[in-house]
């Protein structure tokens, strides 16, 4: 047998050399972010430790690790680093404000002394830690430091936020070091001449940890699993040493020596475990040499034994005042329901304070797993907090369910003010979920209930919520009146949050008739809310500016406003408004002819599985529009599904564009009755309440179908020009606004061939196959000979409009890989791969994977590079 200790440092010299070169550059002020990735057991920690141990004494090393807890501790690795740094940094970390921690970490990295800051196992990181990383990682340039992050790419889904954090780092500042398995030669060098190399390599696939554990098991055959190798080594130890292995196996990552000793571990037993190579002692802690070994040994224990061990660990940790996340973890593992409820509730509130909304939802859910452990008032408060966290994290289903539970409890308790607040919150959630009637019912009940109890903060909230619902259906005069009533009452009772919410509503309503005045009011509200740390108010104000600009075709200004709204939502970790604003960006890109970019945004949002309610309908409409214009097989089904989602919202901002899309689909099919049916219900509402762009959008399709003789009142300029017969003026107007598809159709409205041919050229550039087909028929009817046939599919920038990720998936489909194999190869979830495959089939206009592979080979798509973001077609 070869070496049975740690694997020799083989085939990692290049990676180590890269790290050494990076620290040399950092000394000169060229700071970098380094990402070391690879499967479990591949040697990430070994590489980083070898690197840091070889640094000279003038380089500071800060090291924090994320732990495999049931719910991660907010800022866990930063707390560990705070213990090494102390001073002001430690004080900032204790404040739980991730933005301030990010600034403080950068300040540490900016000190004169070179520094390597390691954040290990970031696949287990909490939201607040990822916020800090996102801030610091984008600001390493010019610093004498290296920010080094490790993670397991076999435990990181394609939609994990760490991938977004890494992707946000400027490419010149980012070094990726993916670690590959060892070669056969390296495995042979470790194993020695006597080993069955082929069998060893077949079992371990070159994973260094599996190689050394298999050799260390000392059996005559190669054990088939990690569990077998670990148990074979443990079987040679004394009972006392195996007791130590048991305790350490139920403590994630590492166990303090005092904890193990308090649990009955003797110094001799600990020493025996260390000498065996299974455990490592370092800095007054004890850990398995690898996490895979810890999990394997833990899983070898019976369920009752694991519960018993966790109960004892929990009691020891309680007596020593340990972190809440550890107490929650062991309380759950010990099935101690009282302790789980108690600690999870406190930990959940702390997670919410640090904007770790995902962790807050998980913790509140655990605290309420046994609701009878809480009295009704505390239970109602916990459900309210769970609803707030889930809503902010864009988990609308759990948010509504928790709010309904809280409302039922508040009714039982007979507290009208809190019943009213829950009705208001429920109304807003129903609106986000696309259920307007339910939103109005809850809102009306809240006003009626609270008006019966005199002026109050809650009544001001109810008026503000009612004003918002009026604004959203564009009853703007009434919305402003009710909103000003809410503002007056909010000032009277001293409620800043409700005042800012009402001001946002009033500003949004004013943007219809006074864009500059409404915009300025919303901007002021956003800044005031930011100063008051009212995250939702900040996001709502800036989102409404961006959304209204897009809705009114102010696309030049919308570019800047969307980016600002997205930056704010991401900085404040408000996932719902981030997703909502990405939907607005997709609509803007669609309007500007950036169809590939728009579809890429939609694909990303669908892959995240975070769409619900109004946003789901909005982004599906974007996808349906592109599919319709490109002549996709599923276009009409997508159009009708978008209409099904939009209709319950009962607001022009959702129903009007989808009705217009249905009218466009009917027009493309030459179905005049279909155009009438698509616009019959919504057009009169737009005439009464809509703004000029909404009126014009529907009127234009009716005019093109012969259903309209004159220009309606309150119609936007480009539509008015087109309906008046001024196709040239309409085309110029659309060009000035920046909407090439509408410009092309305006040219095609001309009665003579030359402008129609120009419009056809624009449609071909956009890849608008369906309307181009209609226009070619018109040109033939005008007697034009030699009508251009249009581009062949194989000559477009990317014939199917595939995103980069979809092109990669198609290549693997062509290679015969299954969805599961693709998921493993690309480090995606099977559900995400399934979504990508569905999108590929739709874009290639085929019905099966086999047909997709054949189409890829025929058209050369398996290796084609997709068109860049923003390219037409």
What does this entry show, briefly?
GO terms for molecular function: adenylate cyclase activity; ATP binding; DNA binding. Keywords: ATP-binding, Nucleotide-binding. This protein is mainly alpha-helical.
Question: If you had to describe this structure to a student in words, what would you say it looks like?
Answer:
This protein is mainly alpha-helical and 873 residues long. Among the domains are: 13-180, Rossmann fold; 613-795; 804-859, Winged helix-like DNA-binding domain superfamily/Winged helix DNA-binding domain (Arc Repressor Mutant, subunit A, Orthogonal Bundle). 66% of the residues lie in helices and 5% in strands. The strands form two sheets. Strands 2-3-4-1-5 form a five-stranded parallel sheet. The protein has a three-stranded antiparallel sheet with strand order 6-8-7. The longest helix has 18 residues, at 303-320. The relative contact order is 0.05. Residues 1-5 and 863-873 have low confidence and may be disordered. It comes from Thermomonospora echinospora. Residues 795-860 form the HTH luxR-type domain. One of its GO terms (cellular component) is cytoplasm. This is Regulatory protein, luxR family. Keywords: ATP-binding, Nucleotide-binding.
């Amino acid at each position: 047998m070869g070496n049975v200790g740690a694997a020799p440092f083989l085939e990692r010299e290049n990676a180590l050399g890269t790290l050494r070169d990076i620290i040399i550059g950092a000394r000169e002020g060229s700071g970098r972010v380094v990402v070391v990735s690879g499967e479990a057991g591949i040697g990430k920690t070994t590489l980083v430790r070898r690197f840091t141990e070889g640094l000279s004494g003038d380089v500071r090393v800060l090291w924090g690790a994320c732990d495999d807890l049931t719910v991660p501790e907010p800022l866990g690795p930063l707390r560990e680093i705070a213990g090494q740094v102390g001073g002001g940094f430690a004080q900032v970390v204790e404040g739980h404000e991730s933005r301030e921690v990010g600034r403080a970490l950068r300040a540490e990295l900016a000190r004169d002394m070179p520094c390597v800051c390691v954040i290990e196992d970031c696949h287990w990181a909490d939201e607040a830690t990822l916020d800090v990383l996102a801030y610091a990682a984008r600001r390493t340039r010019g610093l004498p430091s290296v920010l080094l992050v490790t993670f397991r790419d076999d435990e990181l889904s394609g939609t994990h936020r760490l991938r977004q954090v890494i992707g946000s780092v400027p490419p010149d500042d980012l070094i990726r070091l993916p670690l590959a398995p060892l070669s056969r030669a390296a495995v042979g060098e470790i194993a020695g001449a006597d080993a069955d190399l082929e069998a060893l390599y077949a079992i371990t696939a070159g994973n260094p940890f599996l190689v050394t554990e298999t050799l260390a098991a000392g059996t005559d055959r190669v054990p088939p699993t990690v569990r077998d190798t670990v148990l074979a080594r443990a079987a040679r130890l004394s009972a006392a040493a195996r007791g130590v292995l048991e305790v350490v196996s139920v403590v994630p990552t590492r166990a303090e020596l005092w904890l193990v000793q308090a649990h009955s571990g003797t110094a001799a037993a600990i020493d025996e475990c260390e000498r065996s190579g299974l455990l490592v002692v370092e800095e007054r802690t004890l850990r398995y040499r690898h996490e895979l070994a810890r999990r394997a040994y833990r899983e070898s224990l019976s369920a009752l034994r694991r519960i018993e061990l966790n109960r004892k660990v929990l009691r020891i940790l309680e007596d020593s005042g340990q972190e809440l996340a550890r107490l929650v973890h062991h309380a759950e593992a010990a099935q101690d329901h009282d302790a789980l409820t108690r600690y999870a509730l406190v930990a959940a509130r702390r997670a919410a304070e640090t904007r770790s909304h995902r962790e807050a939802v998980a913790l509140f859910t655990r605290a309420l797993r046994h609701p009878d452990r809480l009295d009704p008032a505390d239970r109602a408060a916990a459900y309210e907090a769970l609803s707030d966290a889930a809503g902010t994290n864009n988990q609308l289903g759990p948010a509504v369910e928790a709010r309904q539970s809280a409302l039922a409890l508040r009714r039982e308790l007979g507290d009208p003010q809190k019943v009213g607040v829950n009705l208001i919150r429920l109304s807003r959630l129903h609106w986000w979920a696309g259920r307007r009637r339910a939103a109005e019912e809850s809102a009306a009940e809240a006003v009626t209930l609270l008006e019966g109890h005199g002026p109050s903060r809650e009544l001001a909230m109810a008026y503000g919520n009612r004003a918002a619902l009026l604004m959203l259906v564009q009853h703007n005069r009434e919305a402003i009146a009710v909103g000003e009533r809410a503002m007056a009452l909010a000032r009277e009772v001293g409620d800043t949050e409700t005042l800012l919410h009402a001001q946002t509503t009033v500003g949004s309503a004013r943007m219809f008739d006074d864009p500059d005045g409404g915009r300025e009011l919303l901007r002021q509200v956003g800044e005031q809310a930011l100063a008051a740390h009212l995250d939702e108010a900040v996001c709502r104000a800036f989102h409404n500016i961006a959304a209204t600009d897009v809705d009114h075709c102010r696309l030049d200004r919308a570019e800047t406003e969307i980016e600002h709204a997205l930056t704010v939502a991401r900085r404040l970790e408000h996932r719902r408004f981030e997703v909502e604003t990405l939907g607005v960006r997709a609509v803007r890109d669609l309007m500007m002819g950036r169809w590939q970019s728009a579809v890429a945004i939609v694909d990303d949002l669908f892959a995240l599985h975070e769409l619900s309610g109004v946003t789901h309908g909005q982004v599906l409409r974007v996808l349906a529009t592109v599919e319709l214009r490109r002549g996709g097989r599923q276009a009409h089904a997508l159009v009708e599904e978008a209409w099904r989602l939009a209709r319950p919202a009962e607001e022009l901002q959702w129903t009007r564009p989808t009705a217009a899309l249905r009218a466009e689909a009917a027009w493309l099919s030459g179905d005049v009755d279909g155009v009438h049916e698509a616009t019959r219900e919504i057009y009169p509402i737009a005439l009464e309440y809509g703004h000029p762009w909404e009126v014009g959008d529907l009127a234009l399709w009716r005019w093109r179908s012969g259903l309209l003789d004159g220009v309606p009142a309150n119609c936007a300029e480009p539509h008015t020009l087109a309906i008046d017969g001024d196709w040239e003026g309409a085309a110029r107007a659309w060009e000035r606004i920046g909407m090439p598809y509408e410009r092309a159709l305006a040219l095609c409205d001309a009665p003579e061939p030359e402008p129609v041919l120009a419009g056809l050229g624009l449609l071909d550039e956009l890849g608008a196959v369906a309307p181009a087909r209609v226009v070619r028929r018109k040109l033939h009817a005008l007697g034009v000979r030699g009508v251009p046939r249009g581009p062949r599919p194989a000559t477009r920038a990317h014939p199917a409009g595939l995103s980069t990720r979809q092109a990669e998936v198609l290549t693997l489909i062509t290679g015969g890989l299954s969805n599961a194999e693709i998921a493993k190869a690309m480090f995606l979830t099977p559900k995400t791969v399934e979504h990508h495959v569905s999108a590929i089939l739709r874009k290639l206009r085929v019905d099966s994977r086999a047909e997709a592979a054949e189409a890829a080979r025929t058209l050369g798509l398996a290796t084609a590079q997709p068109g860049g973001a923003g390219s037409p077609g």
